[in-house]
Amino acid sequence: MNELPENHPLSDGRTTHAPLVRALRGDRPERLPVWFMRQAGRSLPEYREIRKSIGMLEACLEPEVATEITLQPIRRHGVDAAVFFSDIVVPLLLAGVDVDLVAGRGPVFAHPVRTAEDVARCRREFGPDRLREAIEPVRAAVSRTVEELGSTPLIGFAGAPFTLAAYLVEGAPSKDHLRARSLMHSDPETWRELLDWTAELSDVFLTAQVEAGASAVQLFDSWAGSLGVADYRDHVAPASRRALQTVQSMRLPGGGAPLPTIHFAVGSGHLLEEVATLGTSAHGIDWRTPLDEASARFGDRFPLQGNLDPAYLDAPAEVLEAHLDDVVRRGRRAPGHVLNLGHGVPPSADPDVLTRIVELAHER
Amino acid sequence: MNELPENHPLSDGRTTHAPLVRALRGDRPERLPVWFMRQAGRSLPEYREIRKSIGMLEACLEPEVATEITLQPIRRHGVDAAVFFSDIVVPLLLAGVDVDLVAGRGPVFAHPVRTAEDVARCRREFGPDRLREAIEPVRAAVSRTVEELGSTPLIGFAGAPFTLAAYLVEGAPSKDHLRARSLMHSDPETWRELLDWTAELSDVFLTAQVEAGASAVQLFDSWAGSLGVADYRDHVAPASRRALQTVQSMRLPGGGAPLPTIHFAVGSGHLLEEVATLGTSAHGIDWRTPLDEASARFGDRFPLQGNLDPAYLDAPAEVLEAHLDDVVRRGRRAPGHVLNLGHGVPPSADPDVLTRIVELAHER
C-alpha cells in the first residue's frame, strides 16, 4: 500500500465526489458522467490552431501546451473529466527510444525490436530509471492541468504493454501484429522480457501522472483484440497487471480510497473474462459489445465505460439520440456507468455533435 | 432448385469423393483435407516470377496465367483443394468500376461511393448484366483449371457484399470502416441499395465459377468483424444471404447433392450465432476462436475450416507441430474439419513450412 503524500493535490478531496470518480467506484451519481476518448486534440479547431506551430510529440512534452490542449474539451464540451493529452509512445520516447509520429501513418521506430539482443539492449539503455529522470515535463503538465481543473477530475493514461510491444516489434503500425505475435510463439522468453520492460515503462508513466494529481487512470490496449484468449492470458495479461501494479496500490492520504483504474482494449469482446482478472476498478467497452451483455459476462461486477458507436456521429439528430438512449439503458445494468464513445473521437467528428451528446447525457 | 447442365465438368463425379468435399459435407474422410487461404500467389517464388511481367489484376483476367497461379500450390504443397486465383475487386472491375490495386496499400477507387446518387449511378452503370457480359475470362480460367485438376476440387471465391461496400465507401482500405458504417446509420436506405448491388455482383461472380466447374465456394468477409451483432444482423447478413442464393440452389445433374459453401469472416468471433443463419454448409474460423469453442457455439451443426494461427509459421518445428495437433484435436468436435490457416498466408511465409503442414495433416 502506497499512501500519497499529505501535500498531494487530491488530499483536499476536490474530486472525491465528482460524478466520474463516483461512477468509476460503482456509484450512481445524480448526473451521468461523460467524456470522450481522444477528446483532447484531433477534431477541435482550437487544437488544430495550436498544432500549426508545434509537432505532436513536442506538444505532449511542452507543459503549457499539453495543459492547454487537455483543457480545451472541458471548456468547449463541458465533459465530466479531462484526459491527459499524450501519446502512447511518449514513455518510450522519454526513455530514449528513437520514435517519430508520421502523419497519416502513426508511430515509426528507427530500430524495430525483434531479437533477444534487441530486447536486451532496450532493457539496458531505455529502462524505467531513464524514463523517471526524463518525466518532469509530464509531471509539470499534469500539476498545472490539475490546478486549472479544480473539482473536475483528470484521467491519466498509458498504452498497455502489448500495444507498445506490437509497435516496437513491427517498427510501425500493422494490421494483425503478426511479427509481434510470431515472436511470442517463436521465442516466448524474449517476448516476456520485452513485455516486462514495456510494462515497467507504462507503470512509471501512470504513476507519475497519479503522483502529480490525476484522479483516475486508463490503460489503453489498442491491439489486444488481435489475440486469442489463451495467448492473451498466458503472454499478455501478466504484463498489463504489472503495468497497473503501482497505481493500484496507491491511496489518498489519511487512508483514502484506492484510485479508480480503467482498462480499455479495442475489439476485445472475446477477452472480457480475461480482462476481468486485471484488477482494474472499471472497464471500457468498445462499440461492438452491448453494455448489458458485457456487464452480464462480467457478472455485473464492474462499472463500465462506453460505448456510443462513432459511426452514429454523422447520423440525423434523432437517430443519434435513440442510439444514446439505447446505450444509457443498457449501461444501467452495470453497477456504474461512464458514458463515452466505444472508440476514440474520429478526426472528422463535428465538435458540436460531441457537445450535444454531453448535454443529452446530462439531461438523462 | 437449379440443376447444372449434363455437360457440366462435375457431372462425371470427379470430385464427389474428394476429402475436401466430403469434409465440407460433414463427413470424416480417411485423410484430413488441408488448403491455405491465399495459397495461390503471395509467398511462392514461382508466383513472384510470373508477376515480374504482369500486374495483379491482369493476372486475374488472363485465363492461362490465372490457371497457372491457381495450380502452383497444388504442385508444390500437395494441398487437397485449389482456390481460384482472383481478388475481391475483380467483379467490380469487370462490371466497369474504376479500381486499381496499389502495392502495399490495397484497392483504391477513382470515385468513392458515398451518396444516394453515387449508389444509383453504380446500380445503373455497373450492374450484374454488365458483369455477366465481361466475365468470360473468369469462366475460361476456371474451366481450364478444373480440366487440369482432375479429381482435386477447385474452390470458387468472392468477397462478401459488406467488404466490397466498405472498400467502395471508403475508396480505399481503412481501419474501422467508419465512413461505411456511418452511411449505414445516416442513410440506411442508400446502404441497403448499395449492399443489394454488391450482393448481386458477388452472386454472379460465384455462380460463374460454379457453372465453369468449381466444386465449392467461399464467401470471404474481410471486414464484418468491425460490426456489432445488431448491425451485422440488420444491415449486412441479408446481403450475404443474397450473394449465396444462386449457388445454394444449385445441384449437380441427376439430382446430385447441393454444392458445399463456406463462409469466412475475419475477427467475427462475436458474430458466430449470426453467420450460422447464412445457410452455408461450413464455416471458416479465424485464429482467435478455438475450433471446439466455435463448434459448441454452432451447436456442433457445421463442418469447420481453420484455424492455424499464421503467427506459428515462424516458430520452431516442434512448437508449430504442437499447435497443429491442438487445432486438429479441437476440430474433432465439429461434424467435419478442413485444416487451414485462421487467416490468409502471410507474404513472408516460408513455402516449405506450408508443405510441411500438409504432410503433418495427412499423417494425422
What features would you describe in this structure?
Chains A, B: It is found in: Cytoplasm. Chains A, B: Its EC number is 4.1.1.37. Chains A, B: Catalyzes the decarboxylation of four acetate groups of uroporphyrinogen-III to yield coproporphyrinogen-III. Chains A, B: InterPro entries: UROD/MetE-like_sf (IPR038071), Uroporphyrinogen_deCO2ase_HemE (IPR006361), Uroporphyrinogen_deCOase (IPR000257). The first copy, chain A, is α/β, with parallel strands linked by helices. Chain A has a single domain, classed as TIM Barrel, CATH 3.20.20. Chain A is built from 17 helices and 11 strands. Chain A is globular, with a radius of gyration of 19 Å. The model of chain A has no long low-confidence stretch (mean pLDDT 96). At the A-B interface, helix 10 of A face helix 10 of B.
Write a short abstract of this structure.
2 copies of one chain form a homodimer. Chain A starts with a strand and ends with a helix.
